[in-house]
Every structure is written in structure tokens, then in C-alpha cells.
Amino acid sequence: GARMKGAGSKSSEGELFLSEAFKVILEEAVHKATDVKEKVCEWKDPEELRVLMDLELGDHGESHQQLLQRVRDIARYSVKTNHPRFFNQLFAGVDYHSLTGRFLTEALNTSQYTYEVAPVFVLMEDVVLRKLRSLVGWSEGDGIFCPGGSVSNMYAMNVARYWAFPQVKTQGLWTVPRLAVFTSQESHYSMKKSAAFLGIGTENVYHVKVDERYSSLHKAFAEDLEAKIVHAKSQGAVPFFVNATAGTTVQGAFDPLDRIADISERNGIWMHVDAAWGGSVVFSKKHKHLIAGMERYLDPIYNPNSYEVGTLYFFGNSHILLFSHQNLLMHCHCANATYLFQQDKFYDMSLDTGDKSIQCGRKVDCLKLWLMWKAIGAQGLANRVDIAFASTRYFVEELKKREGFQVVSEPQFVNVCFWFIPPSLRGKENSPDYQEKLAKVAPVIKERMVKKGSMMVGYQPLDGRVNFFRMVILSPQLNHSDLDFFLDEVERLGNDL
Amino acid sequence: GARMKGAGSKSSEGELFLSEAFKVILEEAVHKATDVKEKVCEWKDPEELRVLMDLELGDHGESHQQLLQRVRDIARYSVKTNHPRFFNQLFAGVDYHSLTGRFLTEALNTSQYTYEVAPVFVLMEDVVLRKLRSLVGWSEGDGIFCPGGSVSNMYAMNVARYWAFPQVKTQGLWTVPRLAVFTSQESHYSMKKSAAFLGIGTENVYHVKVDERYSSLHKAFAEDLEAKIVHAKSQGAVPFFVNATAGTTVQGAFDPLDRIADISERNGIWMHVDAAWGGSVVFSKKHKHLIAGMERYLDPIYNPNSYEVGTLYFFGNSHILLFSHQNLLMHCHCANATYLFQQDKFYDMSLDTGDKSIQCGRKVDCLKLWLMWKAIGAQGLANRVDIAFASTRYFVEELKKREGFQVVSEPQFVNVCFWFIPPSLRGKENSPDYQEKLAKVAPVIKERMVKKGSMMVGYQPLDGRVNFFRMVILSPQLNHSDLDFFLDEVERLGNDL
């Protein structure tokens, strides 16, 4: 019998297309995308882009050549996050081994749920998780790869809730007292999203005050956390989850893990560390002190913890959640589907780890990290972290030498938050409309750089401080000349404001 | 200044590695993986595989050649889900354009949250969602791509809860009465996982009886659904969510959408259709009748609905959730983070759709579907669906001609559930140990095929029926000779049992 007909299903044609498309992808989305002589982005208004891209979907298929042109166009009008001058997000740059791992993952197209269909990846995930736990300082425990940091935080919150009140899994929240979550006011918004999604409610998230510019003393933080716990209890709520942030989204600040741990321990509250952004410091001997305290948690029965390791530089859209307790993750999430997790298989069925997940099919996320690690080793990963810190230091020193640049706070990590004060506003800090005018500077400079395509960086207001830029320094393709260019370009784009 | 040092970050070396690795991936994970003369899997016991793969992670990096060998080994020992004789999961086969879209997605490495960093993909997602809504029969509405069907179901349940009781978002479940979910006893286990995760509890999921072998009348189902709703209310619970399954996981059966809609409408309950498996029938004029009733729901204010379109053949790990209501998704999930969704941008900020999601960074999932659609058109997609139905019919007819094969139920979709009764058990249906012996047949045949590497298919018990095989027919690489081979091979592997 003939193979099923249908355009694109013939193997030889399909493989030819894939090969030719790969060349286009390599040229447009990798080679040119990492070249400083090329633009970071090719800005088009939405209306113009809609027309240019001819996005509408019809009844009939297109030719091989038309489709290749589409691949080229998509790359052309997409933002080059691999570019050394892309500073807009908490991801940037390309790791070639990680990207190879992603391609292989996509080609093999399996799901992480059983040893039967993912033998290599079930074992690989286990190795990666064990290795990361040992770096954190935990001799045993559990873990899982999640589709992003927000989902990781939800997992942690749900497992913590299950530990405190296992009946919630079957009976819902109606049979337990109101629950309270604690997190700093500068923590990621996923804490609120998690509380909303899990049925706990955003108003049951208590925001703890951070110390002015995140001083190393963190006195105010610790005091306010204790006060908020007492307050929540006095209102009849049960504190069950304290989130500590290791690397805040905007400022890259580290909460005082040691102090928070003391308070959690004393109150019997689950401590979670959201290290979605700062987690990569576990690789660096020099900078690991920022998460000092994590290694203390050796009693998984009375004080289980969770620790989310994100980013790890160049590791987009996958996050790793570690638990100090060995079995809670499975107990909390299992549904024992008999069509998938049969109990009469011929191999060790404890390798069918899919029931730990809230997902059914789960993408393979471990390979990209594993292959990168095999390629450069833990020392290579540590070097990247150390280099990023050193480049950040270089950038801050250069910035301070220039007139008109003002840091919002001294960086602890690789985020540098600063204002650019244009000549017309310098020395006018006491004018009544100074803040209002300053607030408008960053958006205009941003618009200009995007339309020019020279670089991209984010800005935001925070806690009463008007719009400032957030520079993030993490791409392995980055060098000092890119940082010098950045400062020059801000001046070029903003000096007339 | 020199570019940051660190193994693997040099562009020319990196691109060379990527190119060579691509050749290996194309050969091992695509070309050989779709060749019927090659094995579907190369079974190794976990202990053996651990040693073979040398998975442990160390301090130092490896050479280019060693890493290429690793890529080859990973492909070699991974299951070939692209193989025409892989029938083990609800995904199978390769679509070359979709795979190209995946590669491009990985290379561009952006996040779907803002127009600023994903201009092409924000517009593209909108086009795909609109097109799918129009196929379902909805003139307006909303939607989102989710990391899998289980997460889609959670989204739907959360949005339905928000529609019924918006205060849950802020105050949690303590301020509302106990909520009740309704779904068939053969629906996917993610309904229970969703209820657990959202704080509703698995015991508040009421399982509705399905009709014997899913007859087209569905009388028992409709009656039991009404009875369960009355029962839940009498217990003080508030019914808020009815899930209808379009294509059950094991049998591929379709719930009676029209009847369920009548009941939902009458009771003012949100109706969700979990079409994660059967959703692709929307493309087929011939088979769309299986979801008849969906097009009725035109009142998004009083009767909002959600519809999850999954799989679409060869579309692994991404699912699409559609809503008939336009704004609920955003209202339910938004957290208004000012560092990401600035309100003073220079473009139409309604294009920053990331706050609809419970994730922060969200993988681009629309491109693989969009490129496949551009390549073969809606007609090509419809053909695939029709061919899969026709091949299923062929398979069932061939199966019935053979002694020892017995279908569990007549297929509605592309799942064929059947027992293989080995010669020693034929005619002994009334022996007291018949069921016990039959239950052991499928696991043994499965073990033998996996160790031989000739093919893979799933089995499971269901509702008192002992282990039977679930054949699924969906790969575009599949032809009739593969189906004949399948039946022959089951006989070869099971005739001595």
C-alpha cells in the first residue's frame, strides 16, 4: 500500500525542506542575529507587519520556496534575543549546545512521563536534579522541570499546602482555615497569580516591606515578616508559605535567606526560595554566599523546603523546582491513571515519574541544560556567572563616570537600575515637575532605540520611583564594547530631551 | 575588548557544532526514525542505560567530537515516536513543516508576552486563534496556547470559576459555597488534577456515568448528569463547571455535546469541551458532526463556553484553549506587572497579551501550527483527519477477519480498543480464571515487542474490563502495510501464550 498521501508527509521532500530551512535558520536567526553590525530588531507597526507577513490561513498549501521565504521573513521581523545588544529581558544570548539540545528534543518529540517512551530523559532528568540538589546543599530530596518560573512557584505553593493540609487535595479549601502567604513587596507577580489560581486569593498574600535599597542587614524585612505573621494569625489565618526571592525581577536583590529560614523554622512554615532569576549563583564559589542559608535545611520532615532554580543563563522557558522532601511531590499530584501508569509493567515502575506533574504530556526540558553542562562543565557554568558579575561591575563603574547617569541602587546581581537624566533636567532635582519630566525620558529613549534597532532595554517605575532603566548583563556573546556602546547610545538618544 | 570567554560561546565554533549536530539529528532522529526497516526503540534496562549513556555531570567540558557522539547516542537510545509503527501515545509521526517551526521557535528564543519582543508571534497567535474559533462556529471570543491539555483544562476551570464568583481571585474559596465539577467517568484524569490544584478538591468532581459502549443515544449520560447536578445542589454545593469530552483518552469516544449544552444552559453552568484528543475533527466536513452543538453557543455573556483544541495531529505538547467570551481570560488572570506591561509604551498596548496567562515567560507555540497550515492548507489538514478515520476503518475490518481479535467497542474516532485472545484461551470465556489469564496477555506481548523493537502500543484495564490494547492511528507516515504488520506481529508475539 502507498504511504498516506497529503502534502508534506513524504519523507524525502520533508527532509529536503527541513535541511534547507535549517540553513535559513542558522543564517538569519543565529549567525546574523548575533552580529553586532546587524539590528537587534526591525520595528514595524502592527498594521504594517500584518500586511508584510500575510498571516491569514487559507484552504490551500504553498510551495517549498514560498515556505522558505516565510521562514526567512519570520526571522527577519522577529526580535533578535540572541543579539549582544539585547538587554530587554531576563534572557539573552545564545548557547549553541543548549540550542542543539532543544533541536534534538523537538526532533525526538516525546513526553517525559514514562521510562517506556523517554528512557534516556527520565534518567537524565534524575541526574540533573540530583546534581543541582547537591549544589544547593541537600543530600536528598526531589524535583521537577516546569514550564517556567511562575508555574514552578505554583507547584511549590501547592505542595506546601498539601504538606500542611493534605485534605485540601480531596476536599478543597472549604475544610481548612484561611491560608496566608508571605512574600516581599518586590517579589515576582507570580506569587499573586499563584494564590489566585490555587483558590487562596491575592488578598491572602501578605507583602513584606523590603529594606531601603536592600541593605545587607535586612533588619526591616525580618521585623516586618514576623509582624505580618503575627498579624495574619490574629486575623484567624494560618501562615503556611514564606517565599524568599533570590534575585528580584527588577533590582536583582537577594532576600536574607538565613533570617527568613529562622523565622520559618520557628513558625513551622514552609520556606520556598524563588531563585528563578538568581539561582545560577549556586554554580559560583565566589557568589554563592548570596543564597547562604539554603544548605541548612536538612530536616525534610519537619521543615521541608523548595528551591526554584531558573534561568541558569540561556535556558529560557524552563525552570527547575527542587524539594528537600522526597515523596511529597508525587503524593500531592498523583492521580494514578491506569492507561498511562500501568502497575504491571516489566520494568521498575518508579521510573514512571509523570504523576509528579500537574501536566500529562510534559516536554523534555532536561536535555538542553544537560548538553550545555557536558559541553562546558560546572566550571564553565561558574565562569559565566563570574564573568557576568564582573561585567556588571565594569558597567556600573563606567556609568558612574558619566554625567547624567544615576544608579537607583547598588547592584547585588547582574541587574543595573539607573536613570538617565538629560542635560535639560540636570541640577533641577528640586523643580516641582522634575519627577514628572524624568518619568517621560525612558519611554522616549526606548521608542527611539527600538525604531532604530540599535539595542533593547527595559524600563519601569517602582515603589514611587519614576521610570528607570533596568540593564541586565548575562549574554555570553556580550563584551565590554557592547556595554560602552550601550552608554554612548543612551546619551545619543536622550541628550536632546 | 574581547568577547566574554567561556567554552562554547565563540560564534564560529558554536555555529559549526550546531551544523554538524543538525546533520546527526536529521539522520538519526528523523531519517532513520521514520524508516520501517529500523527499530522503533532500542530497549535497555535502566541500569544498563545509565552506564551506556554516562549521564553524570562533572566539572569539565568535553570535546566537539565527544558531544556529537552524545547527540547520536541520545537519539539511538530514545524511542522513535516519529516511526510509522509507534502507536503508544496520542502523538506519533513527524510533520516536517511543524518541526521546522519548532526549530525556528527555539532559535529565536523569545517569549510570547509582549508585542515588543514577539511582534510576529503576537499577531500570528491572534490569527490562528481567530481562525480556529471560526471553525468551531464562534464569531468572536478569545483564546490562548497552553503547555498541554491538562493545563488548558485548569485554565478553563479557573476562568469558569471567576465568571461565577469573581471574588475568588482576591478572597479565595473561603467566601464562596462549595463548588462542584461534572465530568464523565471516562474523561481525562486532568479533571481531578485541576480540581485538586485549584483548591476545589477531587471529591467535588462528580463523575457522570457513560452509556454502554458510548451509544449515540447517550440517554444514560444525560439522565445521570441531571441527577448528579440535583444531587450536588441538595448537598449544598454549587455546580459551576461541566466538562464534555470530545475524544476520550482510551476509547476515543465523544460525549453528547448538544445534550450537555442543553443541561448546562438550563442550569446556568459553564460548559467546557475537552477536545484535547478529538479536536482535530473541526477540520473535517465529514467528521465534524461529532462535535455538533458547539456552534450553538453564541451568548458569551449568559453562557460562556470554552473549547480546548488539542493535538491536531503531530502537534505535541501544545494545546489551544478557546473562549466564547472576549475579556474573561484577561480579567481572571491579570496582575498588571509594571515592569513588563508598562502603560506608557509607544504602540497599541492591547497587543501585550501576556497577562492573560498564568505564566510569565510563555513559549511561542503558534508557529509550528501556523507553518504546517501554510504548507498544506486547511484542506490538507482535513485530508489527514479523513485519512486517519479511513485507515481506522480499514484496521478494524482487518482485525475482525482474524481469529482471536475482539474489539472492546466500535470506534468513533481513531482509537481501536481490542483484546488479543491467544489460542490457549479461545472458547474458554466461561472458565473461572479466563479474565485473570487474559489480563496477563497484553503486558507480555508489550514486553516482547519493546524488547524486540518492532513496534509500540499501549494497553490498560478500564471499568472492570481487563487489560486490552489501545491502538491509535494518526501518524502521517502510516500506511496499510504498517497496520497489517501490526496485526501479524501481535499474533507472532502472542500465539504461544
Structure explained in plain terms:
Two copies of one chain form a homodimer. With 497 residues, chain A is an alpha/beta fold. Chain A starts with 10 loop residues before the first helix and ends with a helix. Chain A contains 15 helices and twelve strands. In chain A, β11 and β12 form a beta hairpin. The longest helix of chain A is centred in the C-terminal third of the chain and has 36 residues, at 366-401. A seven-stranded mixed sheet of chain A has the order 2-8-7-6-5-3-4, with helices on both faces. In chain A, strands 1-11-12-10-9 form a five-stranded mixed sheet. The interface between A and B is large, with 174 and 174 residues.
Topology:
2 copies of one chain form a homodimer.
Chain A (H helix, E strand, L loop, with lengths): L10 H21 L14 H8 L10 H14 L8 E2 L8 H13 L10 H18 L5 E5 L2 H16 L3 H4 L7 E6 L5 H8 L7 E4 L10 H16 L3 E8 L11 H11 L2 E6 L29 E5 L9 E5 L4 H6 L32 H36 L3 E3 L7 E6 L13 H6 L1 H12 L3 E7 L2 E8 L7 H15 L3
Parallel strand pairs in A: 1-11, 3-4, 3-5, 5-6, 6-7
Antiparallel strand pairs in A: 2-8, 7-8, 9-10, 10-12, 11-12
Q: Kindly report the greatest chain-chain contact and the residue count on each side.
A: A-B, 174 and 174 residues
Order of helical and strand elements of chain A: HHHEHHEHHEHEHEHEEEHHEEHHEEH
How many β-strand runs of chain A? 12
Number of helices of chain A: 15
Structural class, from helix and strand content of chain A? alpha/beta
Question: What general outline of chain A do the C-alpha atoms trace?
Answer: globular
Strand order of the largest sheet of chain A: 2-8-7-6-5-3-4
Strand portion of chain A: 5-15%
Cofactor (chains A, B): pyridoxal 5'-phosphate
Keywords (chains A, B): Decarboxylase, Lyase, Pyridoxal phosphate
GO molecular function (chains A, B): pyridoxal phosphate binding; sulfinoalanine decarboxylase activity
Protein name (chains A, B): Cysteine sulfinic acid decarboxylase
